[in-house]
């Protein structure tokens, strides 16, 4: 869906680009629809959040910073300065511009959100996740959209794919609880293949010493010899007041420094979050780090998943991230045709008769450039919209 009075040929081209990317990543033929009434748009957005797993929101470049503020406020989220975006902006900012104003406009994303950064930081978007819902906010920006789709957007979506599959798997386990003991806790072949690649390069991946490494030791003892591929370092640190994501980054970087490279990794303990409905949500952080960058991923437990299952799933994803690093040399790799092919094959094995649609593309605020951003936002906020509140629980990348 899109909101606007007029859509230019360039807007149509960028909309097609988003549709093609979504088709590759989420196996959907969903098309965006334009709305010329903001009330109807917000009503349809609320429906999309109720009926779909993935929602993509966008606006024209001229009004994108105001649109981001509107979406953040609509979801009742607080904002923070993202260092990844800010770093790019400081490198590319025009001397005639006020740095603080530029940062306030382009580097602010919701607390807990994941940056979908542009090549120069300007018009960067974000992604937020709550339970199984993902919301992307990206611009119709001809100079930046393609790089964003190939970059953070693709990486975030790629990391999400195993979780969506695992959540569905756990629902099935819950329905047939007596078979749980027979379910595989992790993809043994994926780990074996990654270990073989690590050993082939004659390197070891340094892992921070946390309580969860005991589960790695069990895999090494019972299934796969990891002694020649992983180095459990002595590095550990107290979490203190650090947020879980920053704590996982500190652990991975500490492991890297302790071993002198070439890659550090960490698995956090299982964290719990008590929600408003009194239910408890479990998650862990996985992080890999080289000398300059770190990639921290937040992994949620699926329905019926135990802490043990979650930790083993995190170990599997750690090896998946290491495998990507081995192939690309980057802790935050670009999407690859091979990865897309593997994901496509896995998804073909899923139940095709899902009650929910996989994705909704919402290209909003495609207004003619003649409409000033301030006027648009004033019009939007003049009405009491009811958009479901989201907790900004997301994967996070740090550079």
List strands and helices in order, with pairings.
Layout: E1 2-3, H1 9-26, E2 34-35, H2 38-51, E3 52-60, H3 64-74, E4 79-81, H4 83-92, H5 99-106, E5 108-110, E6 114-116, E7 125-130, E8 133-140, H6 145-175, H7 188-200, E9 205-207, H8 213-222, E10 230-232, H9 244-259, E11 264-267, E12 271-274, E13 280-289, E14 294-300, H10 307-328, H11 337-348, E15 357-363, H12 373-381, E16 396-398
Parallel strand pairs: 1-2, 3-8, 3-15, 9-10, 9-11
Antiparallel strand pairs: 4-5, 6-7, 7-8, 11-13, 12-13, 13-14, 14-16
Structural account:
By secondary structure, this protein is α/β, with parallel strands linked by helices. It has two domains: 2-159 and 351-398, MoaB/Mog-like domain (Molybdenum Cofactor Biosythetic Enzyme, Chain A), CATH 3.40.980; 177-336, CinA-like (Maf protein). It is 44% helix and 19% strand. It has helices at 9-26, 38-51, 64-74, 83-92, 99-106, 145-175, 188-200, 213-222, 244-259, 307-328, 337-348, 373-381, and strands at 2-3, 34-35, 52-60, 79-81, 108-110, 114-116, 125-130, 133-140, 205-207, 230-232, 264-267, 271-274, 280-289, 294-300, 357-363, 396-398. The strands form four sheets. Strands 9, 10, 11, 12, 13, 14 and 16 form a seven-stranded mixed beta sheet that branches. Strand 6 (114-116) and strand 7 form a beta hairpin. It is globular, with a radius of gyration of 21 Å. The relative contact order is 0.19.
């Amino acid at each position: 869906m899109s909101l606007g009075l007029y859509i230019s040929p360039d807007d149509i081209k960028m909309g097609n680009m988003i549709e093609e990317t979504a088709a590759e990543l989420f196996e959907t033929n969903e098309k965006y629809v334009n709305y010329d009434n903001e009330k109807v748009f917000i009503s349809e957005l609320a429906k999309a959040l109720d009926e779909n797993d993935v929602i993509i929101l966008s606006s024209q470049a001229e009004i994108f910073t105001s649109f981001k503020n509107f979406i953040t406020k609509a979801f009742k989220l607080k904002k923070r300065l993202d260092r990844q975006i800010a770093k790019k902006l400081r490198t590319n900012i025009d001397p005639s511009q006020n740095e603080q104003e530029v940062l306030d406009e382009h580097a602010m994303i919701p607390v807990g959100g994941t940056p979908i950064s542009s090549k120069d930081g300007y018009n960067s978007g974000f992604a937020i996740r709550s339970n199984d819902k993902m919301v992307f906010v990206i611009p119709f920006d001809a100079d930046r959209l393609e790089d964003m789709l190939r970059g953070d957007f693709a990486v975030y979506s790629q990391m999400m794919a195993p979780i969506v599959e695992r959540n569905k798997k756990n629902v099935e386990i819950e329905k047939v609880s007596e078979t749980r003991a027979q379910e595989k806790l992790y993809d043994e072949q994926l780990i074996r293949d990654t270990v073989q690649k690590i050993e082939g390069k004659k390197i070891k991946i340094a892992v921070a010493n946390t309580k969860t490494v005991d589960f790695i030791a069990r895999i090494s003892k019972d299934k796969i010899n990891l002694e020649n591929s992983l180095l459990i370092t002595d590095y550990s640190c107290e979490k203190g007041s650090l947020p879980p994501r920053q704590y996982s980054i500190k652990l991975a970087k500490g492991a890297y420094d302790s071993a002198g490279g070439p890659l550090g990794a960490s698995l956090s303990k299982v964290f719990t979050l008590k929600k408003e409905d009194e239910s408890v949500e479990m998650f862990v952080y996985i992080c890999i780090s080289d000398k300059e960058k770190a990639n921290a991923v937040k992994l949620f437990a699926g329905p019926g998943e135990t802490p043990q299952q979650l930790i083993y799933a995190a170990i599997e994803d750690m090896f998946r991230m290491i495998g990507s690093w081995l192939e690309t040399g980057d802790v935050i790799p670009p999407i690859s045709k091979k990865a897309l092919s593997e994901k496509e094959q896995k998804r073909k094995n899923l139940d095709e008769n899902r009650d929910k649609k996989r994705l909704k593309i919402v290209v909003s605020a495609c207004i003619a450039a003649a409409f000033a951003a301030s006027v648009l936002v004033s019009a939007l906020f003049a009405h009491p919209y009811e958009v479901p509140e989201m907790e900004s629980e997301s994967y996070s990348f740090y550079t």
